[in-house]
Design goal:
The structure holds 2 protein chains of 2 kinds. By secondary structure, chain A is α/β, with parallel strands linked by helices. Chain A has a single domain (2-192), classed as 3-Layer(aba) Sandwich (Pyruvate-ferredoxin Oxidoreductase, domain 3). Chain A is built from 7 helices and 6 strands. Chain A has helices spanning 15-28, 77-82, 109-117, 127-134, 140-148, 156-166, 172-192, and strands at residues 2-10, 32-36, 47-55, 69-74, 87-96, 122-125. A 6-stranded mixed beta sheet of chain A has the order 2-3-1-4-5-6, sandwiched between helices. Chain B is an alpha/beta fold. The chains are: A alpha/beta, B alpha/beta. Strand 2 of chain A pairs antiparallel with strand 7 (171-175) of chain B.
């Protein structure tokens, strides 16, 4: 088993929480794991990415080799397109359709979505609205994690267990919200794969 | 013992705790910050009473660590690569004094300058100081090298440099721990003159350091971090230093490289191992995630030996970090590439946070400076450097910690009056105070903005040494009381703030304006923490 995943978004959007959940789930299944994060200056509202590698065999490089990623998981649609050279031809893009517009020249969102729909394999979903229906916009990143879940090669219960552990300090309400968001995202992906 | 999921930085911190460290000293700097942060948050470190306070700058951190080493205890000092420039005086001389308790200097380099002003390679500093260098290929090695490093430092009685790079520092993986060691007892150096670098003693100490070189090299030759992977191929031999080894083996099925490979993790360069590879092969490829240090050594000035491939002959790019793809290209393997990035994708550079006080401070400064024209604001290292970008475009320099004030003095001396310096509170106590003293003694017509967000913001909100002390420091240095002015950088005070800055710009001497408002990130974190505590109370 090997999954190379690019996580993409804008600083502050919660991609590291997604990475932490996948990472913990992978560890609980005794997989090898490497997760390269971006800290420091670029975190301030800039484009951020994390390379997450899971494997049943030891992993060498902290960075995913170009053109070999299995998945791009993005919490922002334009950011999902930034890393297409990293993706292999059979790879999937899982992304939110909700733009994070903090630059003066953000392109027309319709054009961005059309470009994503031109890629060979994708799941695009309105994570913000799904999260709101679950109870809070804050869970949009968990909706995206849910949509990516069927592609991770991990057992559903290990991802759920990871969410319970990671958000334990935030109270039961937050855990239930995140689990609901996860399941809604997963249901959407299973319907649209 | 179960593996721990740790960043490279955190693995180094955990190793230091486990190896019996008694104190750690540092100034925050990406990508080194998380080492100290991990120790500060560690319950084990607390119960073992490990000292772990941020220092005012890297030089004071280095000296404090040297003091702890003098007293016989194990200690670590951490900094980003450019921090070693600040600590260099103490660092180089610490090699001459030598160590008593184990002393590890961690320098975190940033090839590709993800968060830095240059991509200098700290291994040159280690070589310059004539001390052993350790360079891990992965996070587990980083953990193991801290244990070995303390031992090496105590055996050889010198500081040891641990050189890491961004990708290793900020990548998380499972780490197996070693047995936990007791801390050293307080134990003075057997020679109480060892640390007195009077010329007569320094000459003796220096000769001793030179004598130790062969022992350092012998240790590198037999080090488990330097490994020769034999292979019958005699065409190409590969030398891979530190992290570059991973990028090499990533390119091969089962990580089996079809060439002889020398993996290097401990310096001085193990000459016999290198020679063995050189004798076997027609040409060598040198992979270094940094400057071509070993490549240059091998090649020599005249390049009359066998062909040495690497960054100097164009086989690899001359600058920037390596990657699996770059190494694949250097080996002529080629590599896959997904679809090109769509032309729709726009740059999204970092920016000041929404609600950041720096934004309001620079908006006011821009307006106050309109009468004088552009090009007179010298700035410094911190979040506020982002005011260089659109829409503010306020500043004209960012060179090194503290350079804002001193460059403004020089520019004013040249006739650029008024000249403005813009420096953060933590950067001010790091390296701005001495510059402000120069300005006072020089009676320079400069206006200094000390942007006080009451934290070290850029690196994630560490305690600022300046906290609650800025006005007192300025007073103490001799800035006239009426020219130390605190303002509140908020949109509603904009006009008032512009007037104050305008007035100080026209003053023919040193004035200090302190725009003070807490960093929006640390403020939000405190609010979240409060909400969490409230929740905990509710649950009880």
């Amino acid at each position: 088993m090997k999954k190379d995943i690019i996580l993409a978004g804008v600083g502050g959007q919660g991609i590291l929480s997604i990475a932490a959940c996948i990472g913990m789930a992978a560890l609980s299944e005794n997989l090898f794991l490497k997760q390269a994060e971006v800290h420091g200056m670029s975190q301030r509202g800039g484009a951020v990415q994390s390379h997450l590698r899971l494997s049943s065999d030891p992993i060498a490089s902290d960075l995913i080799p170009e053109g070999q990623a299995d998945l791009i998981i993005a919490v922002e649609p334009m950011e999902s397109l930034r890393y297409t050279p990293m993706l292999q031809s059979s790879g999937w893009i899982i992304t939110s359709i909700n733009p994070y517009n903090n630059i003066p020249d953000y392109p027309d969102i319709e054009l961005i979505l059309k470009e994503i729909w031109n890629q060979p394999h994708y799941i695009t979903l309105d994570a913000d609205n799904i999260a709101k229906d679950c109870g809070s916009l804050k869970a949009a990143n968990m909706v995206i994690l849910g949509a990516a879940a069927p592609f991770l090669g991990l057992r559903p219960d290990s991802v759920e267990k990871a969410i319970k552990t990671i958000f334990a300090g935030k109270g039961d309400d937050v855990i239930q919200l995140n689990l609901k968001a996860l399941n809604q995202g997963r249901a959407y992906a299973l319907k649209h794969m | 013992m179960e593996k721990m999921l740790l960043l490279g930085d955190e693995a180094i911190a955990q190793a230091a705790i486990d190896a019996g460290m008694s104190g750690i000293y540092a100034y925050p700097g990406t990508p080194s910050t998380e080492i100290m942060e991990y120790v500060q948050a560690s319950a084990e470190a607390k119960s073992r009473k490990i000292r772990s306070l941020w220092s005012a700058n890297e030089k004071t951190a280095m000296e404090t660590a040297l003091g702890m080493s003098y007293a016989g205890k194990r200690t670590m000092v951490c900094m980003k690569h450019v921090g070693l420039n600040v600590a260099a005086d103490a660092f180089i001389n610490a090699a001459i004094t030598g160590a008593n308790g184990g002393l590890i200097v961690v320098a975190a380099d940033d090839p590709s300058m993800h968060s830095s002003q240059n991509e200098q390679d700290s291994r040159f500093y280690g070589k310059f100081a004539l001390i052993p260098i350790l360079e891990p290929a992965n996070q587990q090695e980083a953990y193991d090298m801290v244990h070995e490093g303390f031992q090496l430092s105590e055996e050889m009685r010198v500081p040891v440099l641990l050189r890491i790079t961004t990708r290793l520092a900020h990548s998380r993986t499972g780490i197996a721990r070693k047995q936990v060691k007791e801390q050293n007892p307080l134990q003075l150096p057997s020679n109480l003159k060892q640390f007195i670098l009077l010329p007569s003693i320094a000459r003796k100490q220096y000769r001793e350091l030179l004598t130790k070189q062969s022992a350092f090299e012998a240790a590198a030759e037999k080090s488990s971090f330097n490994t020769f992977f034999a292979h019958p191929d005699s065409k190409l031999g590969i030398i891979a230093c530190g992290l570059a080894y991973n990028y090499l083996i990533e390119n091969f099925e089962q990580h089996q490289v079809p060439n002889p490979v020398l993996k290097i993790g401990q310096y001085p360069v193990p000459r016999d191992l290198v020679n063995r590879l050189y004798e076997q092969c027609d040409e060598l490829l040198v992979l270094e995630d940094g400057y071509p240090m070993l490549e240059e050594l091998l090649k020599g000035m005249l390049n009359k030996g066998k062909r040495i491939k690497g960054r100097l002959d164009g086989t690899l790019p001359r600058d920037g970090e390596l990657s699996p793809a770059i190494v694949a290209d250097a080996l002529g393997l080629g590599h896959q590439r997904g679809n090109e990035v769509s032309s729709l994708v726009k740059n999204r550079p970092p920016r000041l946070c929404d609600g950041c006080g720096h934004h309001d401070a620079f908006t006011a400064l821009n307006q106050a400076l309109e009468a004088y024209g552009r090009g007179r604001v010298f700035s410094d290292i911190g979040c506020y450097t982002l005011s260089a970008l659109e829409p503010l475009e306020s500043i004209n320099s960012c060179v090194d910690m503290g350079a804002s004030i001193t460059m403004a003095i020089g520019a004013a001396d040249a006739g650029l009056i008024p000249a403005v310096a813009a420096i953060g509170d933590s950067t001010f106590t790091h390296s701005g105070i001495t510059g402000l003293l120069d300005a006072i003694n020089n009676q320079s017509p400069i206006t200094v903005l000390i942007l006080d967000n009451s934290t070290t913001g850029m690196t994630g909100g560490q305690t600022s040494s300046a906290f609650g002390k800025v006005e007192d420091i300025c007073r103490g240095l001799g800035v006239p009381e009426e020219h130390i002015i605190v303002i509140k950088p908020l949109r509603k005070y904009h006009d008032e703030n512009v007037e104050i800055i305008r007035k100080e710009l026209s003053y023919n001497g040193v004035s200090v304006i302190i725009p003070r408002r807490e960093c929006i990130q640390t403020l939000n974190r405190k609010l979240r923490q409060k909400a969490k505590e409230k929740l905990m109370e509710g649950n009880q």
